[in-house]
Amino acid sequence: MNIRPAVDAELRAVAAIYGHHVVHGLGTFEEEPPTVEEIARRIAAVRGLGLPYLVAEESHVVVGFAYAAPFRPRAAYRYTVEDSVYVAPSTIGRGIGKALLGEIIAVCEAMGMRQMIAVIGDSANAASIGLHRSLGFEAAGVCRAVGFKMGGWVDTVWMQRPLNAGDSSKPEGRGLHIGGG
Predict the structure, then answer these.
(1) pLDDT tens for each residue of 76-119
(2) Less crowded by CB within 10 Å, the N or C end of the chain?
(3) What is the phi-psi region of residue 90: left when phi exceeds 0, alpha when psi lies from -120 to 50, beta otherwise?
(4) Which residues contact 163 (CB under 8 A, 6 or more apart)?
């Protein structure tokens, strides 16, 4: 398996993997798969902030992707990112998500980020909760019945992992250049 930055030639593969999870799962609260053009816009927005958007490939086939995005748009959140990880349905359980998320963590630590948040769709999503726990995330809370998808109410599970020194010291550098207010 090779993990590396996503390239434009892989937009359709990323859209297909994500689209499957949109249509068939509760890990994302989107209900309509975004277009390839929308995926391109999202990747460009992540890259524009200097954040990682990575793919995992096996035999030249994209089998998963992960990225870090700003946690919230206010400037005070500039040292906190939120992760997202999705793998092709045929490859779930093979460690691809763990490898991707591990690399996202490493890149964000190298950038000087201090906290990583996971907002996991569905409190019954044992695979994602377990993945995050295996990489040092701890439970931060559950928001009950905040989404309605596939005919039922869905929770979100919040998990958090300190990066670098976490909150034990003041951060160095400027952090992400995100909104004001």
Answers:
(1) 999 999 999 999 999 999 999 999 999 999 999 999 999 999 99
(2) C
(3) alpha
(4) 105, 108, 109, 113, 114, 115, 116
- CA angle, residues 93, 24, 127, in degrees to nearest 5: 30
- The closest of 93, 117, 3, 114 to 53, measured between CA atoms, is 3
Write the CA distances from 179 to 74, 78, 115, 124, 175, integer angstroms.
5, 9, 18, 34, 12
Closest CA to 140 of 173, 168, 167, 162: 162
Distance of CA 146 to the CA centre of its chain: 19
CA–CA gap between residue 177 and residue 78 (Å, rounded): 7
User: Under a CB-based contact definition with an 8 Å cutoff, are residues 68 and 81 in contact?
Assistant: yes
Compute φ and ψ for 85, nearest 5 degrees.
-140, 130
First to last CA, the chain: 42
At residue 181, the pLDDT reads 59
For strands 115-121 and 80-87, give the pairing.
parallel
SS3 118: strand
Q: How many residues does the chain have?
A: 181
